[in-house]
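Progress note, sequence design subtask.
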């Protein structure tokens, strides 16, 4: 199997638990790029929460944002963007407000992150990602035709689990999935990390069999199953490790470097 491109989730995979990129991981990315093998970050994050990472390690690479809802080249050219419909957006926001008024709702549209107010949950996310939230009225945004690529719910884990189950049933046209115990992603049903990878592969002219991907959580499922070699981190849940083709070391122990070194894609250090 000839690997021509490598994809990686960010949180719990590319980053350590304290949100760092290790020296081994940085050198791994640069080594791949020097060999003409693109390295693509694939994340539920918005672009403005991904670019600070790439800038910090000094690379310019393609990204797949919003779990496949927005695909950008290394020159930030939009290859694909999928938003929720206005009908779905209004209905799901109304349902959330009626049944779970205590949660924090985030409205991500393109390169913008809108919130009703900057509460402690939003502030924590800003501190982690370096992205900046903008207070806004969601109804006014929709009236102006600004529709979200993703709605993100921040809530206590039991509430997130309940919302995932109930909203998934009420809105079969939406993709409702937890990306972390306290985070619930809501996107168009057609969106997944696999569809984002498909767009990127078409851009380069390669097939899924020529791709390798790293992931650690449930929203990585489609991605790991779609590519020729899906690699789960050792810190992934049992179910994710079981469906992957391979399991590598944890994000804390340079799992990406360890896997690619064993495959001979990068030199040992």
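Output:
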């Amino acid at each position: 199997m000839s690997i021509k491109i490598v994809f990686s989730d960010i949180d719990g995979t590319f980053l350590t638990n304290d949100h760092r990129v290790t020296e081994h991981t940085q050198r791994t990315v640069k080594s791949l790029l020097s060999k003409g093998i693109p390295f693509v970050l694939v994340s539920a994050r918005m672009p403005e929460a991904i670019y600070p990472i790439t800038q910090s390690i000094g690379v310019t690479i393609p990204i797949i944002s919003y779990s496949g809802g927005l695909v950008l080249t290394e020159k930030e050219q939009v290859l694909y963007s999928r938003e929720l419909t206005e009908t779905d957006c209004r209905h799901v926001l109304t349902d959330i407000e009626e049944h779970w008024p205590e949660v924090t709702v985030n409205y991500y549209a393109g390169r913008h992150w809108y919130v009703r107010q900057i509460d402690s949950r939003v502030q924590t996310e800003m501190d982690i990602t370096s992205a900046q939230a903008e207070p806004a009225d969601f109804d006014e945004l929709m009236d102006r035709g600004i529709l979200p690529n993703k709605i993100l719910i921040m809530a206590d884990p039991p509430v997130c689990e309940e919302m995932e189950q109930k909203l998934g049933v009420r809105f079969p046209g939406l993709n409702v999935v937890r990306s972390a115990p306290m985070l619930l992603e809501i996107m168009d049903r057609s969106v997944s990390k696999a569809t984002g990878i498909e767009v990127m592969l078409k851009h380069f002219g390669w097939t899924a069999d020529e791709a390798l991907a790293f992931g650690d959580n449930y929203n990585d499922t489609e991605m790991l199953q779609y590519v020729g070699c899906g690699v789960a981190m050792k810190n992934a849940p049992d179910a994710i490790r079981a469906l992957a083709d391979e399991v590598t070391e944890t994000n804390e122990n340079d799992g990406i470097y360890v896997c690619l070194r064993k495959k001979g894609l990068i030199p040992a250090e």
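The CA atoms of residues 13 and 251 lie 5 Å apart. Work on this subtask will continue into the next period as scheduled.
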